[in-house]
Predict the 3D structure of the following.
Amino acid sequence: MNLTISGIRLMLFTTFLVVTSSCDSDDSTPLMEEEIEEMSEIFFKGSTWLPTSGLVIDNGEIGNHYNLELGITDGNLVSQFGRISISTTMNSGSTFALAFFMSSFGTDQFSSGTFEFVNQWEVSQSEGNVFFSGEFIEMNNTQIVAMHPLSGGTISISGTIPDLTLELDLELLQSGSPTPLKLTGKYSGSFEFE
């Protein structure tokens, strides 16, 4: 087989055209179409907790704030009488629940942002986004193992209801100790809205 330099160039050019035209085809699909979902994880007392669902209860305008009750769990959160019901949640196979009240400054609607912990009686004097009266509850499917009230920290909320992302950096009380426990993590997902 006797190939000249111009023949080799012609073969290379033809190969190049075939390869590039097949890459430009409109009906081609990418090799990987899966979206990478953000991982929802909570880190507390040396363990990783995996929240899978959330519940928002709209409490509307109270004073100079717009108020919600939020909760996340690895089971199903249920409300009774306009509040998150821990006893019903416990029977859904949950191993934990984290619930708290959020108040965004202003009365038109709830706004995302960073919320700082305050005691419940300080909410009406606050001119910012705050959260209060919450706790992390450890369960073993049928009974409460431990309850840890919130005592400090921040929660950042982004998105719009029902699709929210919570970034948690919390302090919780522990029985018999002045040193608070640290809870950090993130939940990103769709919240049931009531």
Q: What stands out?
A: The two ends are 79 Å apart (CA to CA). Helices lie at 5-23, 86-90. The mean pLDDT is 80. Residues 5-23 form the longest helix (19 residues).
